[in-house]
Design goal:
Arc Repressor Mutant, subunit A, three-stranded antiparallel β-sheet, 6 helices, globular
């Protein structure tokens, strides 16, 4: 995946942020960390790299000077269709070795694993 994303200046670990912001709605860092299921410090590093590479922009939160809203930069928005196509191609390639039924079964198993890891008791 990283090889397919490298030409766009993106890494696979940044995809959750990229797609969470793809609808154009800015989000706070804490919301992105929760969506990506990572620690705040990990998200801070991810966002710093993405900002350095011109993929995101920060807008100060008018209600909390310590916080900012994160959105995709115009450059990232321009690349969105190509990045989505690259990800779709990799996903199709990874499922091509499976029969249609096996592919659906794999996705269901992965959803169950994720649910089991994220559900709190």
């Amino acid at each position: 995946m990283d090889d397919a994303l490298r030409p766009f200046g993106l890494m696979s670990g940044q995809l959750p942020v990229f797609f969470a912001l793809a609808d154009g709605k800015p989000l706070a860092q804490r919301d992105l960390a929760q969506l990506a299921a990572v620690e705040q410090s990990t998200m801070a590093k991810t966002l710093a790299r993405m900002e350095r590479d011109g993929l995101i922009q920060r807008t100060p939160d008018p209600k909390d000077r310590r916080s900012a809203f994160i959105s995709l930069s115009p450059l990232a928005e321009e690349r969105l269709p190509d990045i989505a196509a690259a990800v779709a191609a990799i996903n199709a390639r990874s499922h091509a070795v499976l029969a249609g039924e096996d592919s659906a079964h794999l996705l269901e198993l992965l959803r169950r694993v994720i649910k089991g890891l994220t559900d709190t008791a």
